Amino acid sequence: GTVAGSQTICPNTQPSDLTLSGNVGTVVKWQSANNVSFTGAVDIVNTTSTLTGVVIGNLTSTTYFRAVVQSGACAAINSAYATVTINNVTTWTSTGWDNGAPTSTTPARISFAYAEAIDLSACSLVVDTNAIVSCPTGFDFNISGAVNVQSGSLTFQNNANLLQSGTANVNTGEITSKRINASMKRLDYTYWSSPTASATYSLKMFSPMTISLISLPAGGVVGTSRFYYLDEGANAFVNTFEPTTTFFNNANIARGWSIRAPNNFPTTGTTATFNANWIGKPNSGNITIPVTYSGTGKGNNLIGNPYPSPINAYSFLQYIDPLNNSTPNAGTLYFWTHSNQTIGSTANNYASFNLSGGIPAVAGGPEPNGTVQVGQGFLLKKSEPSTAVFNNTMRVGNNDGQFFKTTTTEKHRIWLNLATETTPLNQMLLAYVEGTTLGFDDSYDGKLINNGSSVSSLINDETYGIQARPLPFANTDEVALNFKADTAGSYTLSIDHTDGLFLGDQNIYLRDNLLNVTHDIKTSAYTFTSDQGSFNSRFDVVYINSTLNIPTPTFDANSVIVYKNDSKVLNINAGKVVMKNVKIYDVRGRLIYEKSNINTTTTALNDLKAEQEVLLVKITSDDNKVVTKKVVF
To answer: Which of 576, 581, 575 shows the shortest CA–CA distance to 595?
Structure first.
C-alpha cells in the first residue's frame, strides 16, 4: 500500500494524519526514521490504517513514515512511505528575509526593525532582543503557532491584528495592542475588554486621567472611582474600589469594564480622541468566563472580546460545546454606544445584535455588523447561567469594520423604524429564520431595551426589539406589534430596509386596528396620531390586504387624538371620521374657543389663545356624534 499525507510543517508542531490505502492485509505497526533508508527505524505501536498527529508527536527534523503490513501467513511487507518535511526558519535582517518570505508552514524570526505594510504569515514568530516590530494599520500577522517576544517590542497599531490558531495559549513575552476609540467627552463611558494579560498593567495605567479614589495621608479615601464592573445579580454597576491595583491579568481575561473618559477631556463643544493601549501577553486559545442569570429582569453580563483581533459575533453565538452539545454563548449582545453620557442610565444607548441580525441604538450610531472589534466590551444577556466560551476559530482579520458573515442560515428580514415629525425614535427587526419557533429562541430573539417611545414585537406579552419567526414563510402570518408613546402626538412607521424574499414581490402591510386601516408600508410610510401610553393591540404586520367589509369607522375617545405639536399648536385627529366643529372650554365651563365648518378628519387650531391650563375639547362629527377630551395646553 501507499501512505498519503506527505506535508511540510513548522518545527515542534503536530503534522496532519497519515493514511495507508491500497494495502492487502492488516497493519502490524508503523515505523518512522530521519533518513530515507530507514536505518535505525523507530517502531510506533499503532495497528490502524491512520496514524494521527498525537501518535507521531512533535517533530524537529524531516521524518519518513511507513506502515508494516501482513496478510495471513505471508511475511510482513513495508509500505511506500510518506515524508513530513520540517521547514527551516527564515530571519528578517537589515537586508530582508534571509531564507525567503515566510509562509504558513515557515517559522519566522525578526532580528531587525520591521514595519512592512504587508500581511505576514508564519507558523511561529520570534521577536529578537532589541528588534522594534510594528504591524501597521490595515494589516495582520497570521501566526498559527507561538509568538515569542524577547526583550524587543511588537506593536499592533489600530485596526491591525494578531491572528492565531490552536486551543492553547503558547505565547511568551509582551505585545502592545492599540485601539483608537471614537471621539469622547469627559462624561462619556466606554465598555472595554483587554486583548492582553498582565500582572502589572492596571486599569488606572490604561486610563490614567480617569477619576479614581484619592487616598488621604491620615487614612481613608475621597471621591468615587469611575472604573466600573457590572454586578449581574444586583443588575447594577459597581465601582472598582482601587483601579491602580486591579489588573488586566489572567483572572480578568474576557471581563468587561465600563470606564469613563479622562477627566481632562472637554465637557461640551469639541470632543477628544481616546487612544487605548494594552500591554501584556497576547491572549490566545480557548478562554472561558462564567455568565450568570439571577432571575426575571436580570441576566446582563458585561464581558468582551479577549483577543488582539476581532471576533465574528455569529461564530461566538453559534458555538456548540462538544462535551454536552450545548450552546453556552446563546443570547443577545448589547453594545453601549456612549451617545448618552451617564453610565447605564438609559437603555436608549444600546445597539442590539443576535443571530437574527442587528438594530442600532435609539440614541444613534450604526447597526452592529457581526464583528466585535479589538478591546470591545459588551453585554451578553442570558436566560440561563452558563460558561461563555471564546476560541481562536472565532477570530477574523477584519481591518475596517466591514460586515463579515459566515452563517448560511436562511433569513428574510424587515427593519421597521419609528419616528416623530422631527426625531428618529427606534428600530425593530422582524426576521423569518431557519430553525426558529414562534416562542422565545435564545440567540435569535432579543428583548427591547428602550426607555422612551418605541415600536416592538410581542412574545408572550413581552416586548422584543428583535424577533425571529419560523420558516417556511406563509403570507397568512400576522405579527402583533407593541407601540409605546411617551407623549400624545404624531408618529410615523416606515421600513428602513429589507432582505431575502421581502426584496422581491412579497407585499408588507401595516394594519391599524384602531382606525380599521391596512396600509402598504412597503410603498410608503404610515403617519398616525396617538395618545400617550402603551398599545399592544393597535398594530399588526400582515402580508395580505384584507380590507373588504370594513365596519363603520370608530368615533370615540380612543380614536380621537388631541395633542400639541413641536410648534405648540393644538392638533386634533379624528381618524377616518369627518369633524363638523370643535368647541373648547376651560375647567370652569366657559367657552373660550370655537371652530366650525371643519369638514376634514384633522385640524390644527393655530389661532387658539389660552394660558397653560387644563382644557375640555368637545369634537362633533359630521353625523352629530360628540367626543370630549381633556388636555393640558
So the answer is: 581
